[in-house]
Design goal:
43 helices, 1469 residues, alpha+beta
């Protein structure tokens, strides 16, 4: 079906078959583009007419081709009523009569050409992360609006697309014909949201929408529509029209933004240079959003500058702050901020377009993320946490130290050198504004005053409005003090201090019901801006001031005594459960679990003050609306539009006000047009002053001026309590304060920690003041976090239903029978309805009769269960059952949904559109010969670095057959970069070893070759983002299954992706040991043994003692007895160390059946707190004496062995080889890096030799890949086992974009190598495993939830020739979706080597080639600790922490759920 352009298409929520439910309305509208007028009017009028004619022609053609196709006769196709259409046509004629100016460089043909060439931004990882994060949020009547050139076409295409093409993990997005907006339409429909599609812009097929399309024209069509409900709440609006339409769509949008509640808005802005002139697109929308106090952030950019550009060698930008200013989540507070971004981006686009011969786009595109809340465009804790919070651990350096409070970035200080304060007396309405200028310079005070504005200069001379009180000079700052006299007839003159806005002086604005304020869009650069909440400063309770970029706000309480209460209430009445003061501290949202994790100080003070906690307190709805309605009215909420203040609904503060209470309600956030409780304007005694104050200014982290927003609300609450709190004068007026904190209403779960110390101090000081002796204090939340990455997990959905509820009543109530009853109710299931009844009874002494009841009365027995508690939705109880294991969600292993990652931002920027991140500064010298007459140094695989007069292999160098045992040589001569020569000469010794084995075993066929390429610290998501070349190659060979069930592989090479492969430990050692030996690495467990063992500082870490010092065993050996210390002299380590693998020893068998290690034998302890436990044979046969180390096993089977670690790891405690097991292989790469390391002082490269950071004469050479290839070529008839650990991704840099530099370089090398070997004859008998040991597990990035989830999901692929796989292919295909670990890889390798009887194998593992892994395999079955289990459900906590669990490191063990004994970290200070 082809729809006309510029029409609305909507689908109801959860319309999974929209072809049967389409409601299409064909409408038209009008718009006048808002662009700058130019001098050549005639020329532009002509162009306008040409463009209009062309668009009209296109639309006419489309109208003529409208065909309505339907699979259901009930499909509805409705048009706009004639009266509405007539009005729209009249509006369009009116707009067309207005003067329209089109940029003179715009023409239809060029626009279509530009569209096809430049302006197709990718629906990349950033947008998929956003869609997964936002559109998974299912709330009643959720609407999604998409404005794009092909929005309606995508709507029509949706029923015809395969489901796997719409999945956010699909690879089809790369080749999709739909625009970014069109793809949002598809996924919104797939998630069941009511989707509104509005065409705007130029389509690829040449059609365009009229200039008259605006957001207000779309919104106004619901005024008379009887067919569809107006979408008052829109979850997400994506506004991405074509180039040139960005401003036009937003031209009329004020009504749309005012009347609708939009949670998130994604809008496109663009810029480019044309003939040296900057053109910008989208400022109109930015202005509209800023006017509505939206917080605008950078979401995605098409081009990027970084601090280091390898192309030029520059490591600094012209503006060093732009890296932080325009990266992901950059906050754009003003129009000028956005204009600067667009200029910066256009410069980047022009620069990279010129560099790449126009391969890059010359147009800069940026997607902005806007919200009125606190959410970041891409959730990341790193944007809030200071580096001062970090410590350097042994391995996972720069982790967070939770033994001291987390250090957050403080509210920003003025960069102009000024700060500003307001002295706001409690009773005196006078305002004192103090401007403080830092620095030693002393400008003329009069000149400084003149800078404020010409108006202030005139008024100073004519009026007493300003009186300069003092002009005090010091060495470091200057104070200029103003006194604002409220008796100066302020309201009559309507005068306020102001400054220039876009060059215009505003000197006499009118006061209004909102108080006195100035324009918000642009911060004034030079003037003083003062705001009051009331037109009369005498009645103001809040005031704010801004000078340049310095801002501050202050509050006060002007008491309003209720005389009727004073006259009618007798203080001699002693009912202790009535007329109590009430203080409610609402944390919106906050679960009990999040309180424990993020607010330990608040939890401690609540325990100290004997607050009563209701441990089964439950939410009754999905979000704030139904839960706060229940809490504050005792009534259910029909829908979110039911929250009103129309006089029909009586809220708790209304009830208490009528009873004579002084009331206050305040919230520390700015949300102006919400139909939820945030925008409800309650009829309270105090609190109205805050409604606009929190909109005066915003900075991160949730700052209002120079202080945190919460501190302003807490100060206002304290002022209220001080004014109305307990006094000796009776009768006194009771008070009720409702303080709402929205700091936790963001999905990084970080800002609640920022609130912790402030709230804890407020509670303590309030009780210490004695003003709460007659008060009921409630600390409560409405629900847990109900959206975002964590909410997508089962534990997150469970926490949504588990708000917190703490209550402390006065002593008389606590000690009464009602107090004891309340205490007995604490462990029962309760709801907000019960809390409402309780507060009513404690204040006015009555109780409404319904399904809830006061907690001062006994709850029924049915409240012992969730399902027995009225008003708790059944689906909430089902979640609790599933999490507790009472209800099995699924038999398979559902993975934790992938959280958004900051790294997606950088992955989406094409390499042609950003600087080169790695720069090889090696000085290349032409020629093949070396001048050995000078002082050269050489080294080989068998000789250390030494002076040399010729090549180590003689004049023929690499072509020589001399010293055939040597397989590489390094040559370094003056003024030359190192030269690495690699050769593999066939060794008779290795060939004979295999032949002898085959004769002994009578094998009928040769075992397959095995090549394991391990890339340290790469998750599946990390590989997809930053290894595109390798992923593309593997996807080409991905195993597929057709409709008949047959398996197919491209070119006979099958690549299998193991989606549910899991880590079994935190770091490389803990995951390599299982894959290479089948042993378990964990912490030492004393509970395994029935007797206690002596300990000392040495042997616990695998060391022995020598003269009061700890020494490691020599390389290749380990302590003889891991359960007893050993002391000897330094010259006799043989007393304590051995290289013989231990046989069965019953005293070393773990006997704790609660541990994974139960039944395993302790092999060794250390290094660095690693403890190794191995399967052991009790039969006493030869297998019990054989080492399970795979390299030793391979040798016994005649394999040629190779081990590679891409750095010189001699004496390193961070590797598996020679620490856990001794390593003896035929070839290794370690020596290459050691030889290069030895001559490091002569190297000209910028880095030490490590991974791809290697400076060699031949560019792009990877010595390990070269060696592996040569080994396969030299031994085609001998089985080979090679293991290479690449460390390119093991870069935990503080700069996000620099982290990926090494891996991107490695991707080129790896893809080239794989592309070479997959089609080489010598590799046709090879099983190739490309894997990672774990995801990122160290560095500052681990505070982010995305890194914590990805750490558990290592990238694992098996590539096998289809002919070699045989019947195993179907089993492998099945196991792709099963829970697998390194233990299973070990089991598979052992069977491939036909070595089952050589050494014991883990009996809990499976052969992935022969055994079908059970569908219901659990992490417990697979020996995966709970901290690393990738599955959902079954009691597994998946909450965000401040780091990755690592049981081997101090501080990092705090992030583990496992019980650790003993603790590693020091005692808390």
């Amino acid at each position: 079906m082809q729809l006309p352009q510029n029409h609305l298409v909507s689908a109801p929520r959860r319309a999974h078959h929209p072809a049967k439910q389409l409601v299409m309305r064909l409408q038209s509208g009008g718009i006048k583009p808002r662009v700058r007028a130019r001098k050549s009017h005639k020329k532009h009028v002509f162009l306008a007419l040409a463009v209009g004619a062309w668009c009209l022609f296109s639309v006419t053609l489309l109208f003529s081709k409208v065909i309505v196709e339907s699979n259901n006769n009930d499909d509805e196709f409705s048009r706009v009523p004639r009266s509405v259409r007539a009005q729209q046509e009249q509006d369009e004629r009116r707009h067309n009569n207005d003067f329209i100016t089109i940029p003179n460089e715009w023409n239809p043909r060029q626009a279509l050409h530009d569209l096809k060439r430049n302006f197709q931004p990718p629906f990349g990882y950033t947008m998929r992360d956003l869609a997964r994060r936002v559109l998974s949020r299912h709330v009643a009547h959720s609407n999604v609006l998409v404005v794009a050139p092909d929005a309606q076409q995508a709507f029509v295409d949706y029923p015809t697309l395969p489901k796997n093409n719409i999945s956010l993990d699909s690879t089809h997005y790369n080749a999709s014909k739909h625009s970014l907006g069109g793809l949002f339409v598809l996924h919104s429909l797939d998630q069941g949201h009511t989707t509104h599609a509005m065409n705007a812009g130029l389509h690829q097929n040449g059609s365009c929408t009229p200039w008259t399309t605006t957001l207000d024209t779309w919104w106004s069509r619901y005024d008379t529509s009887k067919e569809q409900r107006r979408p008052n709440w829109i979850l997400l609006a994506v506004v991405d029209p074509g180039l040139g339409w960005e401003d036009l769509v937003w031209r009329d949008s004020a009504r749309f933004l005012q009347e609708s509640t939009i949670s998130y808005i994604v809008t496109a802005i663009r810029s480019r240079f044309v003939n040296g002139t900057l053109q910008t697109y989208g400022i109109q929308g930015v202005n509209a959003l800023l006017d509505k106090r939206y917080k605008i952030q950078v979401l995605q950019v098409s081009h990027y500058h970084v601090e280091f550009d390898a192309e030029t060698g520059n490591d600094k930008q012209q503006n060093p702050t732009t890296f932080h200013q325009y990266g992901p989540n950059s906050l754009l507070k003003t129009t000028s901020d956005v204009e600067s971004l667009l200029q910066w981006g256009a410069q980047a686009a022009e620069r990279y377009s010129n560099r790449s011969n126009h391969a890059a786009s010359p147009v800069f595109t940026c997607y902005l993320f806007s919200t009125q809340g606190l959410d970041l465009s891409i959730p990341s804790r790193r944007h809030y946490i200071r580096d001062d919070s970090r410590i350097e651990g042994d391995e996972s350096w720069t982790q967070i130290n939770l033994y001291r409070p987390v250090e957050f970035y403080s509210c920003p200080v003025s960069t102009s050198g000024f700060s500003i304060d307001i002295l706001f007396g409690d009773q005196n309405p006078s305002i004192h504004v103090i401007l403080m200028s830092a620095g030693s310079s002393r400008p003329d005070p009069e000149k400084f005053l003149d800078e404020l504005s010409p108006w202030s200069r005139r008024m100073r001379k004519k009026s007493a409005l300003f009186q300069k009180v003092q002009n005090v000079w010091t060495d470091t700052r200057r104070f200029i003090h103003y006194y604002w006299n409220a008796n100066s007839n302020f309201t009559k003159h309507g005068v306020r201090v102001t400054s220039t806005i876009k060059g215009e002086y505003i000197t006499n604005p009118k006061a209004n019901e909102r108080g006195i304020e100035t324009h918000f869009r642009d911060h004034n650069e030079t003037g003083l801006h003062v705001w009051y909440d009331h037109p009369d400063p005498f009645q103001s309770e809040a005031a704010c001031a801004r000078y340049k970029d310095a801002a501050t706000c202050e509050t006060r309480i002007l008491p309003k005594r209720d005389r009727l209460w004073t006259l009618n209430h007798d203080s001699t009445k002693t009912d202790t459960t009535k007329n109590l003061d009430l203080l409610i501290l609402m944390l919106d949202p906050m679960s009990r679990g999040q309180l424990y994790r993020s607010m330990p100080q608040t939890k401690a003070i609540l325990d100290e003050l004997d607050f009563l906690q209701f441990t089964q307190y439950s939410a009754v709805g999905d979000n704030s609306g139904p839960n706060q309605a229940a809490l504050y009215s005792g009534k259910s909420l029909a829908d979110r539009d039911g929250i009103t203040n129309d006089g029909k609904s009586e809220w708790l503060w209304d009830t208490l006000s009528k009873a004579g209470y002084a009331t206050l309600k305040g919230e520390d956030g700015c949300i102006e047009n919400s139909n939820m409780l945030q925008s409800l304007k309650p009829s309270t005694t105090h609190g109205h002053a805050l409604e606009k104050m929190f909109c005066f200014d915003f900075n991160r982290p949730n700052c209002l001026g120079k202080e945190h927003a919460a501190s302003h609300l807490l100060r206002y609450g304290k002022q209220f309590i001080d004014a109305y709190g307990s006094t000796s004068n009776y009768p006194r007026q009771p008070f009720a304060a409702f303080l709402h904190f929205v700091d936790s209403h963001e999905d990084t779960s970080t800002l609640s920690t920022l609130l912790d110390s402030m709230l804890a101090s407020f509670i303590r000081e309030a009780f210490d003041s004695g003003k709460l002796t007659n008060a009921t204090v409630v600390v409560i939340s409405d629900h847990g976090l109900h959206y975002g990455p964590y909410f997508q997990t089962l534990s997150g959905r469970r926490e949504r239903t588990e708000p917190l509820f703490f209550i402390r009543t006065p002593t008389a109530v606590r000690e009464s029978s009602k107090g004891h009853i309340m205490e007995s109710n604490a462990p029962l299931w309760t709801t907000p309805f019960d809390v409402y009844q309780t507060m009513i009874e404690l204040t006015i002494g009555r109780m409404d009769r319904n399904t809830s009841q006061s907690l001062l009365r006994h709850l029924p027995e049915t409240r012992k269960t969730c399902h027995g508690t009225p008003t708790i939705p059944k689906r909430f109880c089902d979640i609790h059952d599933a999490f507790a294991g009472k209800k099995d969600v699924t038999k398979s292993c559902p993975k934790t949904p992938r959280p958004p990652s900051i790294l997606s931002f950088y992955a989406d920027i094409p390499k042609d559109n950003r600087p080169m991140l790695l720069h090889n500064s090696c000085t290349k010298t032409q020629g093949e010969t070396f001048d050995f007459e000078n002082e050269c140094i050489c080294g080989t695989s068998h000789s250390d670095i030494h002076p040399c007069k010729e090549h180590p292999w003689g004049p023929n160098s690499i072509n020589s057959t001399e010293k055939e045992e040597e397989y590489f040589a390094v040559v370094k001569c003056p003024n030359r970069v190192e030269r690495l020569d690699s050769r593999i000469l066939r060794q008779k010794e290795f060939v004979d070893r295999y032949r002898n084995h085959t004769q002994d075993s009578s094998k009928a066929h040769r075992s397959p070759d095995i090549l394991v390429l391990e890339i340290d610290s790469v998750s599946k998501a990390y590989a997809e983002r930053h290894m595109p070349l390798t992923m593309r190659l593997l996807q080409k060979h991905q195993l597929t299954r057709d409709n008949s069930g047959h398996l197919h592989c491209t070119d006979g090479i099958c690549a299998l992706d193991f989606e549910r492969f899991a880590v079994v430990g935190a770091n490389s050692v803990a995951n390599q040991v299982p894959a290479l030996s089948g042993c378990v690495v964990s912490r030492y467990h004393a509970s395994c043994f029935n007797q206690s063992f002596t300990t000392d500082k040495c042997f616990g870490n695998g060391l022995f003692g020598t003269n009061e010092e700890c020494q490691p065993c020599p390389t290749g050996t380990f302590p003889i007895n891991p359960l007893a210390p050993c002391n000897t002299t330094k010259d006799a380590p043989e007393k304590c160390c051995t290289d013989v693998y231990p046989t069965f020893n019953s005293s070393r068998i773990c006997r704790d059946d609660t541990l994974f290690e139960n039944g395993l034998q302790l092999f060794r302890r250390g290094p660095r707190r690693h403890t190794t436990w191995c399967p052991i044979s009790v039969s006493g046969d030869e297998s019990s004496k054989s080492t399970p180390w795979l390299f030793d096993v391979a040798k016994t089977q005649g394999y040629i062995t190779y081990f590679g670690e891409e750095f010189c790891y001699d004496h390193s405690q961070y590797v598996t080889q020679d620490n856990t097991f001794p390593l003896y292989t035929d070839y290794e790469i370690r020596k290459v890096y050691c030889r290069l390391q030895s001559c490091l002082e002569n190297c000209e490269g910028p880095w030490p030799p490590m991974g791809p950071h290697i400076c060699l004469e031949r560019d792009g050479e990877n010595p390990a890949f070269t060696q592996i290839y040569d080994i396969w070529k030299a031994y085609p008839d001998v089985p080979k086992f090679a293991f290479l650990n690449g460390i390119a991704a093991h870069d935990y840099d503080f700069e996000w974009i620099k982290m990926i530099a090494s891996l991107e370089a490695y991707d080129v090398q790896l893809a080239t190598f794989l592309g070479r070997i997959l089609y080489t004859k010598e590799f046709e008998n090879t099983i190739l495993v490309v894997r990672a040991d774990h995801g990122l597990q160290g560095g500052p990035t681990t505070v982010d939830y995305s890194v914590q989830v990805e750490h558990r999901e290592p990238w694992t692929q098996i590539i096998i020739p289809q002919a070699l796989a045989g019947d195993s292919l179907s089993i492998l295909a099945t196991n792709q979706d099963r829970l697998a670990t390194g233990f299973d890889l070990y089991h598979s390798f052992r069977n491939l080597m036909s070595s089952r009887d050589v050494a014991p194998m883990p009996d809990w593992s499976f052969d992935m080639f022969r055994d079908e892994i059970p569908l219901d395999r659990s992490c417990q079955d697979a020996k995966i600790p709970d901290d690393f289990c990738p599955c959902e459900g079954r009691g597994l906590d998946r909450a965000p922490h401040f780091g990755v669990c690592n049981v081997f490191e101090p501080y990092n063990d705090l992030f583990c759920a496992s019980d650790l004994d003993p603790p590693l970290a020091p005692e808390k200070s």
